[in-house]
Amino acid sequence: MRGHLPEDSFAGFVHAEKRIRGHKVVGTSVSTVNGAATALITADLSREGGVSDRRTVRLVKDGGSWRVCGSPY
Questions:
Q1: Which residue in 14, 12, 22, 9 sits closest to 48, CA to CA?
Q2: Sign of the CA dihedral with 51 first, then 15, 73, and 66 last
Q3: Residue 2 domain flag
Q4: Contacts of residue 11, Cβ cutoff 8 Å, sequence gap at least 6
Q5: Do residues 25 and 39 make contact, with C-beta atoms less than 8 angstroms apart?
Q6: Is residue 1 in some structural domain?
């Protein structure tokens, strides 16, 4: 995502979303293919105004940290 969107565009997109008020992780999975670890995290999000949605985010292992890979939106 970092390489595809200028910082000001990303900030504008984030501010346009309704704020997250709470979350519940409803699913996780981790796999390793050819030595590359990836994970999928699925969460139900509660947003301001009573809006709820479910998001699945892909993560990749980068050194000792997990990082979002692709668009989290």
A1: 22
A2: negative
A3: no
A4: none
A5: no
A6: no
Residue carrying structure tokens 């670890």: 37
Residue 21 included in any domain: yes
Per-residue pLDDT of 27-60, as tens digits, reads: 999 999 999 999 999 999 999 999 999 999 999 9
Residue position matching structure tokens 């997250």: 20
Residue range of the domain that includes 19: 7-68
- Structural domains counted in the chain: 1
Cβ proximity of 51 and 31 under 8 Å: no
pTM of the model: 0.73
Dump the DSSP string for 30-73.
EEEETTEEEEEEEEEEEEGGG-EEEEEEEEEEETTEEEE-S---
